[in-house]
Write a structure and sequence with these properties.
This protein is mainly beta. 2% of the residues lie in helices and 48% in strands. The protein has one domain: Porin (Beta Barrel). The chain contains two helices and 22 strands. The strands form two sheets. Strands 2-4-5-6-7-8-9-10-11-14-15-18-19-20-21-22 form a 16-stranded antiparallel barrel. A two-stranded antiparallel ribbon has the order 16-17.
């Protein structure tokens, strides 16, 4: 859920490196436009069939983790977990060249930390991402080697971050670390996307891209009254010398579904935007199902949610990259307990009636009140290859502050640090190790309750 998530078939031509709709990696729009060094090492040509008109990639991943929630977690069982192996993740990615200017793609995945797994009971493959792409310049007889205008219909993937890899099921080799960021608001929904890219052989500006989309919130089909749309506008500039900048704006329009009674509205039957939490991660906790997304910050209901994010990347050589992401996400509504009192996030402590009580039972909020909720955040990610194309180290630091109007502005931050190393066995097998430490303030909207820490690892293949 490129997250759905930013995923990955690699571009076949140089100009497509900044094209937001060439491959499944481009589920996140321009996110894959400049995936950092790790993805460069994992660029593999898919197996071709039918004289090159069909391509297929097979991906598999196995993980092992030793992670514990910190004392004070919402679910005490998470504080004493055993180390162990996770479920195998498997993807089959297909791409079909209908003609020179029309392609279709589909990713079939069995992905435990994603939707559609029926409470973890359904070990079945599902359509994880798919669509049809029309290269409009070519279709109208104006094809150019340095320009690309593509309309995508079907599953549209997007996220406000750019220039870094994203992890979605077995598709992890473009992500230097393990798991995604605490504020990686990424997903895929149904709709249409228009993207224009242009590249230059010389000059200060080497390439640019603009993309826009409109989607129906949710990955399924929902047509209830007053359901709105989600919108995105995204732009990127790539400069000589390894600098890249991007700006992204998202807007959801789902709040008209709410029916307020005495100042409180239920979320039962209401469709919220998928990017309110972001895509699933590969940190798992025993007290919740593997399809839960409870390691992201959970402060925003995802109704009239907006996201504004600026991204800056510097890649002075193929072995070094630095990325800075700064953003702000808001909503016109705030989670509430059964009595209509605002709570910092979807998960909170309460008494037997669901009213906020730090000594009570854990509840997930199913109602909202009017009042602006807001998260301000920044992330720094660094990757350095010690041995080119073979061994790298990486660091990610993220800070997210719950600045919602109705929430106490003390002890209101989530902080996460990830330190990782990766080793390539050839071009298609990647082994990663990571230490992760997350701290959650009581008013932060963190969903674990106090945070977590530990070691985790993954080995993946892609061919």
């Amino acid at each position: 859920m490129l997250e759905k998530s930013q995923r990955k078939l690699t571009s076949l031509r140089t100009r497509n490196k900044i094209n937001t709709s060439r491959t499944k990696f481009n589920k996140l729009g321009l996110v894959a436009a400049a995936v950092i060094t790790a993805s460069a090492s994992s660029c593999l040509h898919a197996v071709e069939f039918l004289d090159g008109r069909a391509e297929i990639n097979f991906l598999a991943l196995q993980n092992y983790q030793g992670i514990q929630a910190k004392k004070g977690a919402f679910r005490p069982g998470d504080e004493e977990q055993s180390s162990g192996f996770g479920r195998l993740r498997v993807n089959l990615q297909f791409k079909f060249h209908i003609n020179e200017h029309i392609t279709a793609d589909v990713d079939i995945a069995e992905e435990p930390n994603d939707f559609g797994n029926n409470g973890d009971r359904d070990f079945a493959f599902h359509q994880d991402f798919g669509g049809i792409e029309f290269e409009l310049l070519g279709l109208t007889g104006r094809a150019r080697e340095d320009s690309d205008l593509t309309l995508r219909l079907g599953n549209i993937g997007a996220a406000p971050f750019q220039f870094k890899g994203f992890q979605d099921g077995a598709d992890n080799q473009g992500n230097a670390l393990i798991g995604n960021g605490v504020t990686d608001y990424a997903t895929a929904e149904n709709g249409a996307q228009l993207s224009y890219s242009k590249s230059y052989e010389s000059g200060l500006i080497r390439a640019y891209n603009v993309a826009t989309h409109v989607t129906s919130s949710n990955f399924g089909e929902q047509f209830q009254e007053n359901r709105g749309f989600n919108y995105r506008l995204q732009g990127t500039l790539e400069f000589a010398g390894g600098w890249k900048v991007g700006l992204n704006y998202f807007q959801a329009n789902q709040g008209d579904q709410l029916d307020f009674v005495n100042g409180t509205a239920s979320l039962d039957g209401v469709t919220t935007t998928n990017y309110r939490f972001g895509d699933g991660e590969n940190y798992n906790f025993s007290a919740s199902g593997s399809s839960e997304r409870d390691t992201h910050i959970g402060a925003l209901p995802g109704l009239d949610q907006s996201i504004l994010q600026f991204n800056l990347a510097y890649q002075p050589s193929p072995n070094t990259s630095v990325i800075l992401m700064v953003g702000r996400s808001t909503d016109d509504f705030t989670f509430a307990d059964t009595a209509g009192n605002a709570v910092a996030g979807i998960t909170y402590f309460g008494d037997e009636n669901g009213v906020a009580n730090a000594q009570g039972t854990t509840f997930d909020s199913d109602r909202v009140v009017r009042g602006d909720s807001e998260v301000e955040f920044y992330t720094i990610e660094v990757q350095q290859y010690i041995i080119p194309n073979k061994f790298y180290v990486a660091l990610r630091y993220a800070d997210a502050e719950n600045t919602s109007d109705l929430i106490d502005q003390s002890d209101n931050s989530v902080e996460r640090i990830q330190v990782a190393a990766g080793y390539w066995f050839g071009k298609n097998t990647l082994l990663k190790f990571e230490y992760v430490d997350q701290d959650e303030g009581v008013n932060s909207g963190g969903q674990i309750g106090a945070g977590f820490d530990g070691f985790t690892s993954e080995i993946s293949v892609k061919f």
